Amino acid sequence: MRIVVSEFMSLDGVVQAPGGPAEDTDGGFAHGGWSHRFFDPEVMGPAIGEAMGKAEALLFGRRTWQTMAAAWPGRAGDPFADQMNAIPKYVVSDTLGDDELTWNNTTRIAGSAVLGRLRELRATEGGDLSVLGSPTLVRSLLREGLVDELLLMIMPVILGGGKRIFPEDGVLHTLELVSAVTGSTGVQVCTYRPAAEG
In whole angstroms, how far apart are CA 191 and each of 4, 5, 103, 178? Predict the structure, then answer.
């Protein structure tokens, strides 16, 4: 099973709150919903659809899971929403209780066990384990070399600060650009994979 990260990203690498004003205001972030004006359905729709078509399960950090769990169950009846609600989901959290896992098909992974559990999942056959949002979790996965592919939808906007996914540990990570498509809004839909060493 591959671990694939999908992110809406600004030119300065911010992934925080692309969906709406109240999505994540941590640190006084005031640009929630910034991605909407750059969404190109002709380019981004197929990329997102293909990624979801390969996904066998979804993986979230606690905050992203809570945001998604509050939004998607109420959208039942739409094919994409039905897929989001039916697909198996994992949430990494030490604070959520099992009684709080109200979004259908969710399993909790304790933070202390996450790297070991994800190595186990990654060693199994099957479709992708798709990570959406979840910048703190993605930073850890990149740092540990557990990301097999990055689907970055890079939008022509500078946000000047906010949550990012890339580790700031001084370690070099070389990637290979697998594909790149430019949308009519200036969005760059880029797929990267870790480059072979040497």
Answer: 10, 10, 29, 5
